[in-house]
Each structure stands twice: as C-alpha cells, then as structure tokens.
Write a structure and sequence with these properties.
It contains five helices and 25 strands. The chain is mainly beta.
Length: 490
C-alpha cells in the first residue's frame, strides 16, 4: 500500500525533531543544534553623530575644565585629555567622561579602543567598559592623520562598588586580545601597564545604594505641611518604596500603593499613596479597630532590639489608632498610650461600600518622643543623627466590600499571619539631605541645619462644611467636600 505524501513543511519539522533527539546523544552530520540566523546586529550610529564629534580644535572651556595628559601611544596617536561632568561619583551613579584623541598617523586595522575602571588593589572592584558610539562608528581602523576625535563615554559605577576611588584606564589594544602586552605602547607620565591613566574619580561610599531590606531616609530641608498632599520639595527627595509587595499568604489588594519617608529635628514623616477602586472603612473614632478594614499601619522598633515597639494606624476617614507593645506581640499592646502624631488624608472618592473610588493618600508627622512608647529609658538618640539605624515597616491593609478577611501589602515583605513581624522590618538608616549616611564635620552640619534642616511642621486649619475642624485628642478626622480629611493631632 502506498503511503500518503508528506508536506515539505512537515518534513522540515520532523528533521528538526530528529536533530533534537540526535543532539541529546551527541550532534550528528547536518544537525548543528544552533540557530543559523544572523544573530545580534551591531549598533547603528547616525553618521551625523560622527561628523559632530570630529573636531577642528579642542572646545573652549573654563580653566581647569579639561585634564590635559598628552600621552603618546607608539607615536601614532595622542591621548590629549578629558573632561568630566561631576567631580565625584557614588556607587550606582553615572559620570560622563569626554575623551579627546589626536591622530598623528593612521593606526591601521587590527586595533580597538579599550576602557576599564579599577578600584583599590586586591578588591573585586573592576569594570570592563563597552564601546562608545564613536568607537563603534569611527574606530581606530578608519582614523586619519590630523583628526581630532571627541569620544563621549557614560560610566555607571557598579552599585556594589566598595573602593574610595575609581581609576579609569584607556588605550588601544589588538582586536581579540586581552593581555597587557597586546596593548599599543603608552609610556611616560600618566600611564601604567601600557595604558593611559585617564582619571581617578573620588567615590562617595556614604551615598552607596542600600542593600536589600535597608532604606536610606534623607533629611528634609524645608517645612512640611501635613495636608495629605505631599507637594513640598522635601517629598521629591524622600526615600521612596517600590510598589508595596503583597504579604505571603494574602491575595493581592485592590490597586497599588507606594510609601515615602523623610525627617527633620521634630518629626519622622511618612506618606502613603494608594490606588483603590473600593475604598472602605466604617470606623471614624480614635482607637477603633481600624485594622479590620482599609488602613495604613506603621510599626517602629527604634532601638532595633525586637522588644518594645509602637504601632500607628490611620484610615481613609482620618481616624487613628496607636498602641505601645512593651515586649513583643505575644503580650497585649497598650492602646491607651497616645503618640501625639499629626495626620491628614486626601480621599479620592468615599469610604462607603458599593461605589467606585480612585484611592486615598495619607500623610503623617510622628513626634520623636513617640517612638519610645512608654519606655523613657529606650537607648535611642532623639532626634536621630545621620547614620543612626532603626527598624520599621509600613503596611497597607485593604478589605474588599463583602469580604471578611483583609489583604495586606508592605514595604518590606511580611506574612499574612503577622503584620507586626519584627524580624521582617526594614532597616532605616538616617541620611543627610544629600543622601549621605556619614555625618558631616560639625561646622558643615551646623550650616546645613541653618539652611533649613530644623524645619517645622505646619498644620492648616481645615474646616468641614458648617463646622470647625475638631483637633482635640481622640476626635475623629472628618472628610470635607474636597476629599481631604481634616488634619488632626492626637
């Protein structure tokens, strides 16, 4: 019996399947096991970019702007020097270095520019830099005698860099080679190992990005008004969370949330912005069980010893709850304790069930003395100093209309079984206004304070329609027509 014909496409598919089977045993003839496509293509650089960076003369600039080195490489090329856009760099930051090369005679084929960055000896601080746009489009193989080449290079220092300096080396090396002896000879001043020492950059390790689970909290340099809006410049430079992460064992809350932290001599400030189409809370009185419905919770273990901490809550009605835990959650908290915090809420919708909302924002100012709870002897400096480390976390609680159990998300991830989770708190390191966690010398620090570091919080008098805002201790926040909860103090 004659078999039915097989389509050509099916034959190709069968061959590929057979090749996979053969490759598993060891590739056979005709079965390469690799994609035969063109592969990654080189970057295309606009010819106009090249033309713009072939110069007739060195650019004019202020005295000292260019570091002149004038290093000769085998008499064929001269590394004239470079400029930088900033005098120092922190790990994770980017510096722009603009190199200038003068071609004495054609280099010929077989050479490429190299650039690398090294840290202190016997460290892992090393970066081999990628080719720049000018090196890709106008490399040494096409250099002509008399050309003055401007080569712009952006260098992003590794976030885990630990050396106090970063030394940039540049030069020419034989294509496909890697050894020191494969470099075009560069000798004399400003050279090492046949390479030009182009720059030694100072590295500000005090501004290195924090490791996971740690946040650097910059100081506010201007007053903050507690109005639920966070429009002050201080909030633009505050520590900002990624989207709060859903607690383990919890379903996702409705919408997303982000949090911010900053501080001054009087307060620790927090701001949380929540997107939520179903804002809901029935609770409007101080020390109601706010955690059962929509709210924001802040836990602070100021001395970081995992014993003795405060719990602060605010809900979309601007009602508050605060409690002091003398040891751990195993012992009941003390809700009769009063934190004295200031709060305001901006509500985008209502707190009633069954309608469609947009979300809500809450702003808090927490007096420093509050973080001690009832433990006046707690070993913590108040206000904190630059470099001090605390433990804290911010939690968003969300209850969908009709549900019995709330969902939760937080800055540092928690479990749905324990929102307090002292072992899962963030490490918060207090920083100066520039983000440095190393204290400045006393004179400089004093100047910073006089420039606005001792900012004072202001709380506007906002009234609900027909009645003055009640700011007495224990009074519930009241929503006004604009959707902003009346700022209140406890």
């Amino acid at each position: 019996m004659r078999s039915a014909p097989v389509a050509a496409g099916s034959i190709g598919w069968l061959v590929r399947v057979a090749c996979v089977a053969v490759i598993a045993q060891g590739a056979g003839p005709g079965c390469t096991g690799v994609d035969q496509g063109p592969g990654p293509q080189p970057k295309k650089v606009d010819p106009r970019y090249v033309a713009e960076h072939l110069l007739a003369h060195l650019p004019a600039g202020p005295a000292g702007a260019m570091s002149r080195l004038d290093v000769s490489l085998d008499g064929k090329v001269e590394y004239v020097g470079n400029t930088i856009d900033k005098p120092a760099i922190a790990p994770g930051q980017t510096v722009r270095v603009t190199h200038y090369w003068r071609v004495v005679s054609p280099v010929g084929t077989g050479w490429k520019v190299f650039a690398l960055v090294r840290g202190a000896p016997n460290t892992a601080d090393f970066m081999n830099l990628r080719a720049t746009d000018m090196e890709i489009a106008h490399g040494p193989a096409v250099w002509k005698a008399g050309e003055l080449i401007e080569d712009v290079q952006d260098i992003t220092l590794r976030p885990d860099w630990r050396s106090p300096t970063a030394t940039l080396y540049v030069g020419l090396i034989a294509t496909g080679e890697h050894g020191i002896g494969d470099r075009m000879a560069a000798s004399g001043a400003h050279t090492q190992d046949r390479a030009v020492i182009a720059r030694v950059l100072d590295v500000d390790l005090a501004k290195a990005p924090p490791p996971p689970g740690t946040v650097h909290v910059p100081r506010a340099l201007a007053p903050i008004q507690i109005d639920g809006v966070a429009s002050e410049p201080a909030w633009a430079t505050a520590a900002t969370s990624p989207e709060l992460v859903t607690a383990e064992g919890s379903s996702d809350p409705v919408g997303k949330a982000i949090a911010k932290l900053t501080w001054d001599d009087q307060f620790l400030y927090a701001f949380v912005s929540i997107t939520d189409s179903d804002v809901w809370s029935e609770y409007k009185n101080h020390d109601d069980p706010l955690w059962k419905q929509d709210c924001v919770e802040l836990f602070i273990d100021a001395d970081g010893n995992r014993r003795g901490y405060v719990e602060l809550q605010v809900n979309p009605n601007n009602a508050t709850f605060d409690s002091w835990f003398a040891t751990t959650r195993a012992q009941p908290g003390d809700p009769s304790w009063d934190s004295g915090m200031l709060t305001a809420v901006k509500l985008r919708g209502t707190t009633e069930p069954g309608d469609t909302d947009q979300g809500w924002d809450v702003e808090l100012a927490i007096p420093w003395q509050a973080v001690r709870g009832r433990d006046e002897a707690m070993a913590v400096r108040l206000p904190p100093q630059v470099g001090d480390r605390w433990r804290l976390n911010i939690v968003r609680v969300d209850l969908k209309t009709g549900d019995k159990n709330p969902q939760a998300s937080s800055w540092n991830r928690i479990t749905s079984a324990d929102f307090h989770a002292l072992d899962r708190m963030l490490t918060a390191v207090f920083a100066d206004a520039s983000g440095s966690i190393v204290a400045a010398p006393a004179a400089a620090a004093g100047a910073a304070v006089s420039a606005g570091g001792s900012s004072a919080v202001t709380v506007p008098e906002v009234e609900a329609p027909g009645a003055p805002a009640d700011k007495s201790a224990g009074a519930p926040g009241s929503a006004v027509g604009s959707g902003m909860g009346a700022p209140r103090t406890k």
